[in-house]
Structures are given as structure tokens and as C-alpha cells.
Amino acid sequence: MSIYFIFQIIIQCHFIYLVILTLTTGWSFCWLLIRVLMWSPLVLNFNNKHTLKIDFLMLHLYFLLPNKGKVWSCCPKNWKSFSSSCYFISSKQRSWKESQENCSTMEAHLVVINSKEEQDFLTWNLNKSHDYFVGLSDPKGQRHWQWIDQTPYNQNTTFWHPGEPNRVQERCVVLNYREQWGWNDIFCAHVQSSICEMMKIYL
User: Model pTM greater than 0.85?
Assistant: First the structure.
């Protein structure tokens, strides 16, 4: 069995693996396309001494790109892309804890809002009649707000509605609309919509 034939089998198996992974994990078609494009132009040449020459620029890039920086990014199906993150907006009503657990099943977490630009992007995609849990909470009821991913809470980058937060017993936060979009503290057991966030995959 020739080395060329073995490589052909490897490439075909890898392609099948990528298709199955895309279908079962929900990654978008662009993710599959990128990976296939990196493998498909493989050209194998043999010289007279039967030494293998892989004259394949894309294969070369396939191994070098991780060290050269991020070149192309993808989000899962039905997720929205902004900056380095992907966002999933769920209209299903859940408690804060259940919302976070739902995000975790998708290898994500409740959204962490780090800038006005991110806040504006999210609100542009939201329904004004819904309240959306975000990844901010006060677990001990001491007004020590914590982001779910341990990002430091920055008082200078907050978007509370006027007069909020206003009750120590309300330990979880929603993003909702009151003439304008802002944050409101509510009881964690209340059921609301939610926003999940994950980092983009870079290829």
C-alpha cells in the first residue's frame, strides 16, 4: 500500500469527521468550510528516490496559523457575533440558576457586559417586552456584585436604570427596557429570558 493511498484515506476520514462534528455540535458551516479548505488542496509528489514532498501551502498554513494569530472566526448556528464573542438569546423563561445551567450545556455562560458597545449590540437584538438575565449577581446579598466568569466588577462600566439596584434581597440582574435599556436587580428565582456568551473559535 503506497504512502499516497494512506494519505488519501487519512484526508477522507478527516473530512467525514469534520462533517459529523459540525452536525452534532451545532458549529456553523463556515467552521466546516474553513477546515476543509485547509486540507483539500493537498498535493503529494514523489521524486525518483521515493521521498515524499508535500508541496501544499494550505497544509503548511494549517500548522503555522495557530502561531501567527487569529485569522477567521466562527460562531455556532443561531448565535450572534460581536467582537471576540458569540451570543445566544434565549426567549425561554428560566430562573437565573437554570439560565446559567442552560448556557453551560452549550459550553457558554450568562453574558458578561464589558463595554457600552457590547451593551448596545445586545440591546439592538433584544425584544423590548422581555427581561434578560445577564451573568451578574450578588450571591451573599451584600451588594458585592460578581460576574459569572470572575471578570472584576467595574463601577465605571455599568448600565443600571436610575434608582437601581434598590433591594438587597434582589441578587440577580436582568437587562430590560424602561424608556431605554438598562440593568435591574430582581429575585434570582424569577423566570426570565437570558443571554449566553462564549468565545469565538479562531482558525
Answer: no
